[in-house]
Amino acid sequence: MKQPALEVHIAPHRDRLGFFVASWANEVLGSVLRLEFPDTVVGAVGLHTFAEMLQSRYSDSHVTFLLPDGLGARPEDSLRDALILNGQHQSVTVSSLS
Asked: What percent of the chain is helix, strand and coil (3-state, nearest 5)?
């Protein structure tokens, strides 16, 4: 049976201009995994690695990146590009919180 989507929330970093925070909450363990990454191609690759880590642990699940409204198209495009380059586009979705 397929597990529910792993929702990774992405938000601008509070203290670092040009950086974002990706977080995924594991409600069963009462923990949160976080990744801070720059709004660059290298940051998108880091985020991709974060998704791969989740996918390797929860292989039956689908990773969904949730972006806040008004974030702009660039982060979403770079995320998609990084994920598609590694063939992960079938197990990862990028969408808006709206």
From this structure: 30, 35, 35
